[in-house]
Amino acid sequence: METLLLPLLLLVVFYFLLIRPQQKQRREIAQVQSTVSPGARVMTGAGLIGTVVALEGDEVVLEVAPGVTNRYVRRAIMRVIPDEEPAERVTSDEMSDSVSPHVQTDATTRPAADNPDGDETSGTQR
Known about the structure:
There is one protein chain. By secondary structure, this protein is an alpha+beta fold. It has a domain at 2-83: SH3 type barrels. The chain is built from 2 helices and 5 strands, in the order H-E-E-E-E-E-H. The chain has a 5-stranded antiparallel sheet with strand order 4-3-2-1-5, with helices on one face. The model has no long low-confidence stretch (mean pLDDT 79).
């Protein structure tokens, strides 16, 4: 009897930690997929974000850019993205003040003083 207690306990723990949460998540996704309506912003399983334009049976037409639509199966929709207030836009003047441009240097742009060989095209010493 004691030898059966440990495997039974492991099965119960396995059910509550892995199987039950996964079933709950599957039910939530199925509910989202069945209630999606035109005008909703959604994200597909691949990470594509678009606006639902039309529902045609098991297919959904998503607008991913102005005038660009893609057709997906309804099961590809993983979540609905809630409408948010647009963030304050940063002007180019504000961005240039807060972000300094990154200048990449390599052997071709280094001065001769940094390159002891004097060979400006190679970063290796001879």
